[in-house]
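Predict the 3D structure for this chain.
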Amino acid sequence: MNAAVGASEPRGHSQWNVHSVIHKFRPAGATQYVAAALKKVPDLRVTIEDMIAEDDKVVVRNHWAGTDSASKQRLEFSGIVIWRIANRQIAERWAYLESPHPARG
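Done. Predicted structure below.
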């Protein structure tokens, strides 16, 4: 994947620049979601906490953080996404994201 990976992330976590990730994967729903999120939170960063692949599925647990452009408040939220891969493309996607809330700490 062609994403920016942070060199100093704790516990070996990778931090991916959302702009890079969206250009690699283009499922319509995910693209629309992230595009809307980037309008509200232009400095949005996603930390991949866990990534597990088995057979034709990939599961990612992630943490999102950034600054709301209107209120200047730091926000964060976490989620899990499951992708089914077929013919080297995302064939199906299931996701759960908690609602954004003020950043802790």
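Residues 28-40 form the longest helix (13 residues).
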